[in-house]
Structure formats: C-alpha cells, structure tokens
C-alpha cells in the first residue's frame, strides 16, 4: 500500500465501496480526507488504519452506534478493553438467543414427533396432537 491512497484504492483494499467510506466520513467515523489538486480524497497511513478499523468492526457485526461509542468515548479503558466488554455483552446476547431458539426447536420437534405418532385411524385433517391445547376438533379422542 502506498503512503496515500485515493478513495477507490482504499475501498478496494478493504473490500468495501467508496459509498461506504464516504458515509463513514459523513457521520464522523472517519476523519475528513485530504484532497488532491483534482479534488480526489487522499488517505494517509493514519486515515487508512482508521478506515481498516471501522470496516473491521462492522464486519464483526458492530452497529454504527457501537463503533461510534468505541471510537469517541472518553474513557479510562483502552479501546481493546472497551471492545472486549462490548463483545462480552454481544456474546451473552447471542447465547441467550441460541437458548431461546433451542427451546423453540425442541418444542417444534416434539410437536412434529407427536404428529408422526398420531394413530392411523385418526381423521386425516386432525392435527390436535401438535397443538398445545386440548382437542376441540371433535375428530379425535384427545380432550
């Protein structure tokens, strides 16, 4: 990478678009780029590293607000410490979501199994075995 990159070169090197980089600049995640005589944005090593950081944080799944907080928060903790704390929170949330989804999956699998085990002499349109309530269809003995 050369010392100064134009926006297209930087976007390509980061696997993102120039539109994304302009957006990040507009909302303050990236500082204003220097301009060439022809008006092109030019990024020095500091700006390149900042862009790499922001794009990398987005790829981790952080929101714009979370990144803004990490970059602009006046805190006693280092960026690494703040990022670790944020990732801890995100991991806990994902683990909770996974637990809820596992419970839903288990419930759905049990209801599916109940339908599979429905006696063959049951009316073909009776799905009461899969429902969490007592039979109201009048087609089966489950009440």
Gist of the model:
This protein is mostly helical. The chain has helices at residues 7-14, 18-26, 45-59, 64-72, 79-116; strands at residues 5-6, 34-35, 41-43. The chain has 5 helices and 3 strands; from the N terminus they run E-H-H-E-E-H-H-H.
DSSP strand (E) fraction?
under 5%
Question: Would you tell me the overall average pLDDT?
Answer: 90
> From the alpha-carbon coordinates, what is the Rg to the nearest angstrom?
27 Å
* Number of helical segments with 4 or more residues: 5
| Major sheet attributes | 3 strands, antiparallel
Your description of this structure?
The protein is mainly α. It is 55% helix and 5% strand. It has 5 helices and 3 strands. It has helices spanning 7-14, 18-26, 45-59, 64-72, 79-116, and strands spanning 5-6, 34-35, 41-43. A 3-stranded antiparallel beta sheet has the order 1-3-2. Strand 2 and strand 3 (41-43) form a beta hairpin. The radius of gyration is 27 Å and the shape is elongated. The termini are far apart. The relative contact order is 0.07. The mean pLDDT is 90.
Provide key terms for this protein:
143 residues, mainly alpha, three-stranded antiparallel sheet, 5 helices, 55% helix, elongated
List the helices and strands and how they pair.
Blueprint: E1 5-6, H1 7-14, H2 18-26, E2 34-35, E3 41-43, H3 45-59, H4 64-72, H5 79-116
Antiparallel strand pairs: 1-3, 2-3
């Amino acid at each position: 990478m050369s010392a100064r990159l134009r926006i297209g070169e930087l976007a390509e090197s980061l696997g993102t678009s120039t539109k994304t980089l302009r957006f990040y600049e507009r909302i303050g995640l990236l500082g204003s780029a220097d301009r060439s005589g022809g008006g092109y944005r030019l990024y020095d090593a500091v700006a390149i590293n900042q862009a790499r950081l922001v794009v990398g944080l987005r790829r981790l799944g952080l929101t714009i607000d979370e990144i803004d907080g990490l970059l602009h928060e006046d805190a006693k903790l280092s960026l690494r410490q703040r990022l670790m704390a944020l990732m801890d929170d995100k991991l806990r949330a994902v683990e909770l979501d996974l637990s809820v989804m596992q419970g839903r999956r288990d419930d759905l699998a049990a209801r599916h199994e109940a339908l599979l085990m429905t006696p063959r002499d049951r009316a073909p349109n009776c799905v009461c075995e899969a429902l969490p309530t007592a039979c109201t269809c009048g087609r089966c003995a489950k009440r």
